[in-house]
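Re-run requested by the PI after the first attempt was lost when the workstation crashed. Everything re-entered from the original request form. Ligand of interest: pyridoxal-5'-phosphate.
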Amino acid sequence: MTINTTDTKDTKNWNSEKSTQLYGIQNWGTGYFRINPEGNVMVTPTGTQGPSIDLYELTQDLLDRGIRVPIMIRFQDIIKSRVELLANCFHKAIADHGYKGEYCGVYPIKVNQQRHLVQDIVKFGRKNKLGLECGSKPELLVVLALMNTENAVIICNGFKDVEYIETALLSQKIGRQTIIVIDRREELFLVINAAKKFNMRPKIGFRVKLHTQGTGKWVDSSGARSKFGLTASEIMEGLELLKKEDMLDCLELLHYHIGSQIPRIQNIKSSLKEAARFYTELYKLGAGLKYIDVGGGLGIDYDGSGFTDSSINYNEQEYANDIVSVLQTICEERGVPNPNIVTETGRALTAHHSVLVFNVLGVNNLYRSEPPRPALKADPSVMQDMQYIFEKMNRDNINECFNDLTQAKQEAQQLFVYGVLTLEQRSWCENMYFATATKMITIAKSVPDAEDIVITLSQELCDTYFCNFSVFQSLPDSWAVGQVFPVMPIHRLNEEPSREATLADLTCDSDGKLEKFINVETGKPQKTLAVHPFSEKNPYYIGVFLTGAYQEILGDLHNLFGDTDAVHISLTEGGYTVDHYVPGDTVTEVLSYVQFGRSEMVDSVRQATEEGLSGYTYLEDPE
Ligand code: PLP
């Protein structure tokens, strides 16, 4: 991508198709997102067809209704589309292969536990018996409260104490299909004791620690050193114990999980091959197995490259086909009935449905079109050197000038530290450096071998757009694991985005910024985003897409920026409805999370603070 140094608008030679190319929206938008001829992002929540909504106009409408940026906009029709897509892929694969088992998906609520979302997932999944997965005692309570689909499976994973296990067991008494997965060998004793206490036949699963590892950011979820799961010898021990207790028929499920966002289908297949061997062996040894639970891991395409860890080299149908065919082949070979297939897909069901929209507050710009006053004879030699570079630089000596400029910059900084340069002189050097670098980029662009100079200086000089959001609250994976999210302006896309910027958030942390963006040409992340020139008179809105999985729930209160306002939107014939409005945290609320009571604070600070306490934690419109 070329990096422009001017903010001249090129409206004539630019259009929404060029923006579509630039931001790669057709690669990651999966039909849900595109750009309309007016240059705004459109959302089509049912997929490529069906009703659409202009995201920019929607944002304006929401602001008019008093909802504040940053806003998390959740499209529940996208959830419906994802839930149906996955089930349909498995039904198709099962029908095409003549597979004898059923598909029983579960949604792991840890991926996003927002009540309205989980309720939607249960509602949209009802006809396909979509169940839920929990990973802790509180999550089990949520699952029991929300899951009312007949015969849908509930999977209990995670660390378990007696209370967790007893609650899970008792839920069987009220008709739930709750399967307790043994993640650590100690848990089996607890389950056996609890079952004896209640005189019940528990539904038990074993989580196996596979040797086969995944790839990607969550690679440590499997392999010998993974946190959860039973080794082959622990599985044999467990089987012996169940046999002794006459409970072999209670072992109904075999589970594994090789990590989230698996980028390559090859890893999905190879881990399943290993797991299928465990399944068939256990079956032959007398276990009452009915289900194989392949865990999560179905990835989504955050960057559209097809080869990075933020992308995938397969689609949902290929995922389903491969799972069905591997299981069928190995089960047939061993004469074992086809198991029902449980998936614990979270990310691929929820990521697409949320878009974070925020406004830009201001810009820090280092490009200089004019140099400072000319250096005088009396000025230190470093200033004269810089003046010389600025004047004499041309296409032939560009490499030499680049090296000299870099050296002069370092020298100026050192001379200031040694007390040789005054503050005024250091400021002159700084301005001259940026003016020279600006001119150098323009010249270097016309020199075939000077691409490195263009990239290095453009990255150094790129704008910083200060934005009204917190990376830590709304996009923690971008900070924690370097996840690339699709980011782009949601309007003005008929106008050339002639600036390159990094996006800084409101926190006072130097990590609080977005510096990894999609580069469609190379497929590898780039440090800057192409944006439009910003003017304070015209609000400028940026959207971060595919944020519905993990981000909200992992987000934290760094600098006490709380939850953003959130709205649940569904599309109607010719319009939309706001099904739920979930106001973001107030200052009072976030202060109470760190044990500051509103009344004590109001007592101890001036009345003027009162107003601030009812405010939104993000920057508000002065009006
Ligand atoms: N199941 C288990 C045991 C997990 O640890 C996870 C998350 O890593 C999931 C399911 C969900 O995975 P994903 O969101 O990749 O589908």
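Saved to the shared folder this time. The radius of gyration is 29 Å.
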